[in-house]
Design goal:
This protein has 169 residues and is an all-alpha fold. Helices cover 20% and strands 0% of the residues. It starts with a helix and ends in a 135-residue tail after the last helix.
Length: 169
């Protein structure tokens, strides 16, 4: 338990210190950008000469030849013959006969008689009278007259070109 709390404390301390030092780095970087840098002459360093090495050659290896193996042949397996089994004979069972059941007799019930109900008499209602309405008259509309279209100018007929017929041999 103590190790976990110590580790979390160290992590918190590291984060705090890095945020403090981050602000100072920004200020220093701004100061370096504002001031001019002196020009430093580039030193001339002679490049060392590397001697050329001969190309290594690998000796030719003989190609190994694989020996040819004879094709393995499987011996013919004889087919096993299944022995024939005799069919089992089941003993014959006699059919069980049930004794006949007597038919139950249902007694006849007398038909119930319903008394006749008197028919109710309905009063006759007078026929309602509907007044006749006058037929509406439709106003006559004048026939619309279409204006005559202007005649199109007549163009002279152009001669139709004749096409050569198919050549027969």
């Amino acid at each position: 338990m103590a190790i976990a709390s110590r580790a979390s404390f160290l992590l918190l301390l590291l984060i705090t210190l890095s945020s403090i030092s981050g602000n100072t780095n920004q200020a220093e970087a701004r100061h370096l950008l504002e001031s001019g840098l002196p020009e430093i002459p580039k030193p001339e360093i002679p490049l060392p000469q590397i001697p050329a090495l001969p190309k290594p050659e690998l000796p030719a290896l003989p190609k190994p030849e694989l020996p040819t193996l004879p094709k393995p042949e499987l011996p013919a397996v004889p087919k096993p013959e299944l022995p024939t089994l005799p069919k089992p004979e089941l003993p014959k069972l006699e059919k069980a006969e049930l004794p006949p059941l007597p038919k139950p007799e249902i007694p006849e019930l007398p038909k119930p008689e319903l008394p006749e109900l008197p028919k109710p008499e309905l009063p006759e209602l007078p026929k309602p009278e509907i007044p006749e309405l006058p037929k509406p008259e439709l106003p006559t509309l004048p026939k619309p007259e279409l204006p005559k279209l202007p005649e199109l100018p007549k163009f002279p007929e152009l001669p139709k070109p004749t096409l050569p017929g198919p050549k027969s041999p």
